[in-house]
Structure formats: C-alpha cells, structure tokens
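Reopening this ticket.

The earlier resolution said the output was attached, but the attachment link was broken on my side. Pasting everything inline this time so it's all in one place.
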Amino acid sequence: MGLEEQQAALAKLYTSNSLREQLASSALKGDFYLGLCQSEQIKLYTLINTDIKIFALSLLRKRLGVIKKILPATCALLAENLSSLFQAFAADKPTTGVKRHLIDASNFANYLTQRNPNQIFGLDEHKAVLEYEKTWVNSELSPLVLKVKCFKHDISKYTTQLERQEPNRVYYGKPRLCIWLRLSSSHRVFYWELFPRFWPK
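Inline output:
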C-alpha cells in the first residue's frame, strides 16, 4: 500500500469510532479491511489505543471548540454533559464541505432535538435557546431564507447572558417575533425582533 492509501485509511480511523472497533476485530482475525494487508492492519491495531485514539480525541475537542462558538448558549446550558453528548453525536460523523462547521453545529442541534429534549433541557426557556440558536445556524446555511419564530420573552438577551456566563441570568421581557431573512447566497442574514401589541395566549 502506498503513502496516499495509508493516509486515507488513517483519516477514516481518526474520524470514526466504529471503524476503529472494526479494525481491532478484523486485525486479530486476519481479515482484510480498509484496503490494508494483515501486517498493516496489525501495525495500526497496536496504535489504536494510543496514538490513533489520542489524535481522534484531539480532533473531537477541536470540533467541540468550534461548536461552542456557534452554539454558545446551548453549550453553556449543557455544562458538564456537553462533552459526553458531543462525543456520542460525533463518534462516527466526520465533518465535510466548505461550511462543515455550520453543518456540524446544525446536525448537533438536531441530534439534541431528536434525543429526549425533556431529559436534556428540563425548562421551556432552555428548549427555546436551542431552537433560537438552531434557527440562526440553519439561516446561515440557507442561500434563501425567511423564518419567523415566536418567543415568550427576550431570547436574544437571554442567550447573550448564557454565553457570557452571567450569574443572575433570567429569561424575561416582552414577547417577540424573531425574523430571519436572506435574499440570496451573496447577502448576509438580516434579523429583526418585533413586539406584537396583541399576543395569543
């Protein structure tokens, strides 16, 4: 196997926990896997729990660092559960594409929504934070967008308080309609908040 093929195999192993587990199993059985011969598989197998695993974890930490910048309030709410939830999400989902970090953040937000959100976010205002930041990310990913979301209080101020880790943060203020608009991929996302005079109960 040439250098290019070896690098491709390593890249897959760095970004997929299930592939690392399969290699560990196949190397001992003598099966051929990832286009590797048995001697190459055995060599990589000896590195799985050391160099490969350490580098794979460092990649996950870098990804999580970017996610914290894109979904700061959501990540702040997850607190000590953030790392384990992200590792469970990202174990077999490598990032790809020009907007891979935004796509990664969108997929992670969807992952949190699809899991039992009542267990992850016990309060309605916490679910509102996830929905607010998820809408921002999806708007940034869309070349043409018009989204309107209703929130009971000042969601933008609350997310800022969470991001800054302010000690006395509270979800309050007038109800509002939050609007995201993008006319084309060459335009930025425009954002407004409106305060309806009459609010449905």
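Reporter confirms the inline version is readable. The longest helix spans residues 48-70. The chain is about 60% helix and 10% strand.
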